[in-house]
Amino acid sequence: MKAKKRYTIGVMVGGMHGNFPKEIISGIISAGAELDVNVCLFLGTQTKGVFQDILLDEYKQNTYDYQFNTIYDYALISGLDGLIISYGTLARYMENVTLYDFAKKFIHIPTIFMSAVVDLPGCYSLISDNYQGICTVVEHLITEHHCERILFMTGPQNNTDSEERVNAYLDTMKRHGFSVTPEMIGHGDFSEFISDEVERLLDANDDPQAIVFANDDMALAGYKVCAKRGLVVGKDILITGFDDCDIAGSLNPPLTTVAQDGKAMSRTAVYDMLRILNHEPVVSRRIPVAFVQRESCGCPPLEEPEKEPAVNLALEVHRLNHVIADMKLEFMNFQRKSWFIPIIARELNDYVDDEKEFCLQIMERIKELRTKGAYLFLLDPPVAYDGESAWTCPDTLRLASFYRNGRSVSYEPSDRPHVTAENPLSTYTNDGDCHDFMTFLLFSGERQYGLLLCDIQSEDFSFFYFVSLQIGLSLRYLEISKIEAEHRRAMSHDMEQIREENRVLDIKSGYDQLTGLLNLHGLTDKITKIHQTVTTETAYMIYADLDHLKEINDTWGHIEGNFALQSVSRILQSCLRDSDIVARVGGDEFISLVTSGSETFEALFRERIAAACRELNETSGKPYYIEISMGIVRFELRPETDLQSIVAEADKRLYEAKKTRRPSIRK
Question: Most CB atoms within 10 A, among 33, 216, 408, 487?
Fold first, then answer.
């Protein structure tokens, strides 16, 4: 089929760190190339679960994953001809949002929902035969392996795939006269990071014979838990999955599963969308699935194929040499990329005084990665979003810079083209060629800065994900630098008079002129108010100071000393929440009051401070180290608490900590 025009099709996919979403992306891109359509991918790149085994609970709660849920609304100003939504991969990350409400946002765009059924005009559904697939699996376990005590691990709530698969399990068990209790059903989230729920499921059931997992990623967690418990999969307990992802056949033993070809399904979605756009008839439909029998369900291995004739040894050695050469090249490419992120951070920091050049350098660095094209769209001004209040897609998005056809272009902030419904994203990315753009959200904490569109290979997604996070951090630093520059310009009018006025203003307002933090007066006022209203709350008093400020001032001058103090201020603010109190109370002394019930706060906070100092020292280009000594006291904050004694104890601990600092901070 040949398109009558080059359409732009948007694609929404969540959980990009999983196996099935990657199959969907692969199918979308291959079909788009065949049909000569532009593809714009809006990627939900949540980290929830991905790093859960290595991150502490308090850090996991502050990863700002909620920001990624806002990226889908930018499709409304993208100028899309059609939209494909893999709802099953993104719904589990969106709380308090129904399928119906989500679909209504895009009702003016022809839309195909994968893994969901939507009864709205202009919405089509493409979904696997989930029910028949699970019925076949459970039927096989009952009739071929005589299982009666079969457990089930379902997927997330409000997910069509999940609901249909658990219903198939319940109906098949009922047909064979086997009762199912609530304890026999576990509640997963379609990720492999559900080991705790698998443990709970096994603990709640005596001598289970089999576990049917609603997808392959969760089955992988089943393998891990069974290995931990000394259970041999395929013998002591039978396990099945759903999807037949690439990992299924390589597990030990290979996983019995249901094959739904994510790549083929997504290709079908692109072809169907083109038919819709060309006004050809298309109906919602279910895609057949196939039972894939392997050893994890207790079946014997399939007969081995006949051995192929022996190969020519010289040719095989030649082939292996080519493989080794390719691996070396791939490793060299990995080394080159691994240096890119710290380099871009360092180089962008050199251009914070020139925003146009700052944005141009982003394109220049991305050009080095051999992308086909890239576009940087920034919000003016940036948007603060806390994840709890209602989200509205901002209308202040502007094209800041782009790279295409070997050329990078950047605009002055006042001249940036405005993205509107009449001039959507596709207006600015249309260069006559066919593209597959991956859209990354740029943010840092609660601050959202815009979008990065890159035409890259799908295998480079993970790397560009980290690049986008670093660009978000650099934009945060740019914003802070702009604020500081505005302050400097405002004060240059009459320096002597402003110095005097600022000294008075510091006393009145309670803020420190150099760092922008609370001063001692402001700290005392704020803590007094908290002290008077608090009931009982666990808190930490942190007394910190900059190591060897006198050495910095004496050796490199007070300008460098001021830079070091400002750097400590930024580090403390970046490692604390907006609700925490932090103040500069002396020349190089800082006090913070943090309310937290976490027993691991002190260790985690020290690690964050150390990491932030290391990053600054690696990228600052300064001939000295910026390091912080701290004394931390955990206490119960009550109206009767003697805060002076708490501060004194923190100061005492700081004094002890300073005994272990470097004797000199000269590099």
Answer: 216
Q: Give yes or no for residue 544 having a pLDDT over 80.
A: yes
Residue 397: exposure state from Cβ atoms within 10 A (0-12, 13-18, ≥19): buried
Task: Quote the Cα angle for 3-6-10, to 5°.
Answer: 105
The average pLDDT across 159-187 equals: 94
pLDDT at 382 over 60: yes
For 590, the token pair is 């800082």
Where b means 16+ CB within 10 Å and e means fewer, 23-50 reads bbbbbbbbbbeebebbbbbbbbbbbbbb
Q: Report the 10 Å Cβ neighbour count for 182.
A: 6
User: What is the enclosing helix (H) or strand (E) of 239?
Assistant: strand 238-240
Burial label for 117, CB within 10 Å (0-12, 13-18, 19+), is middle
What is the sign, positive or negative, of the torsion defined by CA atoms of 632, 635, 641, 642? negative
Q: How far is Cα 508 from Cα 497, in angstroms, rounded to an integer?
A: 17
More confident residue, 93 or 132: 132
pLDDT(237) > 90: yes
599-626 pLDDT, tens digit per residue, is 899 999 999 999 999 999 999 999 999 9
Model confidence band, residue 50 (pLDDT cutoffs 50, 70, 90): very low
447-455 vs 589-595, strand pairing mode = unpaired
- Classify strands 123-128 and 111-114 as parallel, antiparallel or unpaired: parallel
Q: Do 68 and 45 contact (CB within 8 A), yes or no?
A: yes
Domains of the chain with bracketed CATH: 130-262 (3.40.50.2300), 341-488 (3.30.450), 496-660 (3.30.70.270)
Residue with structure tokens 């083929």? 264
Which of 143-152, 168-177, 191-200, 328-337 shows the lowest mean pLDDT across its residues? 328-337
